[in-house]
Amino acid sequence: MNHDQYPDDYLRQILRETKVIALTGASPNPDRPSYRVMGFLLSKGYRVIPVNPGQAGKTIHGQTVHATLADIPEPVDMVDVFRASDALPGVVEEAIALSPRPKVIWSQLGVRDDGAASAAEAAGMQVVMNHCPAIEIPRLGL
To answer: What CATH class is the domain 8-139?
Structure first.
């Protein structure tokens, strides 16, 4: 897939089918984009599970924070990555190890690694990079 741009139907399908999102790099700081995006996704009816080893056991927006994807006690549909691009391969490896696997790896604005995208796609996952669901949801009228 061309990761420079995505068809609206592709993004729409992902955002409609996703119910549970693991948000890696979640922050309790209201000034951080991950905090605001998590709040937005919760307000849109998604179940959002924050992942941040430094905040594990605490809560963000009333949701318990987990240290790793493997610590989440339920299946997730999407992993939303609020980490630096160089962390994306590791997040994809973690996601591939889950059973069942998430359907989608979504990386936030400025986060891109084509090798990680290829690995996720080879494992049967859809990939969106360098996009924000909090921008795409209103843009697509969802």
So the answer is: alpha beta
Share of the chain above pLDDT 90, in %: 99
Domain boundary assignment for the chain: 8-139
CA 72 to chain CA mean position, Å = 14
The answer, yes or no, to whether residue 94 has pLDDT greater than 90, is yes
Cα-Cα-Cα-Cα dihedral sign, residues 130, 135, 140, 142: positive
Res. 10 pLDDT band, cuts 50 70 90: very high
pTM of the prediction?
0.96
Contact 23, 61 (CB under 8 A): no
C-alpha separations of 90 from 6, 32, 86 in Å: 23, 22, 8
